[in-house]
Amino acid sequence: MEEFTENQSKTAIKFPKKFLKIALFPLSLAFTFFFTQLYFNQKIDELNTAERELKNQLSMQLIAAQKLEIDISKVEKVVEAFDKTHSSLFNAIVDIEDLPQGEAFKPDFVAKPKLQGASVFGEIELRTTYLAKKLSKQQQFLQTFLAVARDKENMMESIPAVCPIYVSDMERVSSGFGMRKDPIDSTMKMHKGIDISAEIGTKVYAAGSGKIIRIASSEDGYGNCIVIDHGFGFVSRYAHLSGFKVKEGDEVKKGDLIGLVGSSGRSTGPHLHYEIEKEGEKIDPKKFIKIDLKGVDTY
Question: Does pTM top 0.70 for this prediction?
Answer without folding.
Answer: no
